[in-house]
TrEMBL record:
Record SUPFAM superfamilies: Acyl-CoA N-acyltransferases (Nat)
Protein's recorded name: GNAT superfamily N-acetyltransferase
Organism taxonomic ancestry: Bacteria, Pseudomonadati, Pseudomonadota, Alphaproteobacteria, Hyphomicrobiales
InterPro entries linked: Acyl_CoA_acyltransferase, GNAT_dom, Trichothecene_AcTrans
Coiled coil ranges: none
Domain N-acetyltransferase: 113-198
Gene3D superfamilies membership: 3.40.630.30
Source species of the chain: Bradyrhizobium yuanmingense
Amino acid sequence: MQSADGDALSIKTIDLQDHSRVLAILTTAFTMCPLLRWLYPEPREYLQHFNGLIKHHCGSPYSSGAYLNDGDKGAILWDTAGEKRDNTSMMEFLLKSVPAHRRSETERLFETFGKYHPHQPHWYVSMVAIDPIHQRSGLAGHLLRHATEISDAAQRPVHLEATSPHAMRLYAQQGWSVLTEVQVGGSPPFFPMLRQPKT
């Protein structure tokens, strides 16, 4: 694969020794995420709780995913149909870590997300992260195509939540369809989306 400026892209499957590299990509990328910064609007809170959120939200993130191995510019994490996330544990973590005035809306928001997860076996893209200085350069599309080639080969639908209108449009270009718009209280709008496998 090549980037927009013609440079070759190296995409590496994540393994355990990549933990710190991938966490650095995610931490940097999600400083601009509407969902993460709604949950943790203060920089200190964001940095304090981000690693814990990743562990709860992504399950075993460093065994299912890939990252751009040249400059660590981006990463993508997903759960396969055989992996189960502990939603109860994740909610307990969120309700302990988000600001007190936001706990009720946070609980309602994630409960609403859960209503749109498919009932049939599916994969879940939990994180798509591009370093902010490389965003809007086509790198996210390369990571998404890498992931969908794998999910298409497995013939699995793939679910995700787009956390911004820009992300929604990007995922739509890669074959995802919007299921609904979710907004709870003062939260930004979010968009559960589903992609059916291509033969």
